[in-house]
Amino acid sequence: MLRHKNLVPLSRQHQHALTLCVRIDRASPVPASDLDAWQAEIAQHFRAEIRVHFAAEERVVFPAASAFDELNGLVNLLLADHAWLRQRFADAAARKLSAEEVAAFAKRLAEHIRTEERQLFERLQELVKLEEFAAIGRGLEEALKDADESCVLPAASTRLRPAK
C-alpha cells in the first residue's frame, strides 16, 4: 500500500535509520577498533533526527492510533521499544555498547521500524478518515520542524569496505 502523504516524512526518516541498521549489520561483528566510531554515528543519528522522530510519533501518531482499541497493544509495544532504544542511544553516546550490543541495537531498531511501517501505518491508513489525516499531517509538520535535514555521513572507520 502506498504511504499516505502525511506519513511520508516519518517513512523517509525510517529509511535513514534503516540504512544505519543495514550498515551495522554488514559491518558486524564490529571490530573493537571501530566500536567508538560506530557508537558516535549512532548517537549522531539520534541527535540529528531520531529523538525528534520519536517525540513526533509519541505526540501525534500514537495518540491518533490509540483512538482505535485494536491498535492499543501495538502502540504500547512501540512505546516500550522507544524506551529500550532511547537507552541504547544513550549508551552509545556514552560509548558503553559492546559490539554484540551494537548489532542487537541495529536488529531491534530495524524490527521496530518495520512494525511501524507494516502494521501501524498500514492499519492507520485503513482506519483514519481523510480529514483526520490532515490534522495528523499538521501535527507532524510542527513536531518534526526541529529535525536536522542534513545527512549523517559515515566516519572513515564506519564506511563499508568492499568484500575481499
Proportion of helical residues: over 70%
Outline type: elongated
**Total domains:** 1
Mean pLDDT: 93
H/I helix tally: 5
Specify the biggest β-sheet.
none
Element order: H for helix, E for strand: HHHHH
Short description:
With 164 residues, the protein is an all-alpha fold. The protein has helices spanning 8-27, 35-66, 72-93, 99-127, 130-143.
Topology of helices and strands:
Blueprint: H1 8-27, H2 35-66, H3 72-93, H4 99-127, H5 130-143
Helix pairs in contact: 1-2, 1-4, 2-3, 2-4, 2-5, 3-4
Structural commentary:
Helix content is 71%, strand content 0%. It has 164 residues and is mainly alpha-helical. It has one domain (8-145). Helix 1 (8-27) runs antiparallel to helix 2 and helix 2 runs antiparallel to helix 5 (130-143). It is elongated, with a radius of gyration of 17 Å.
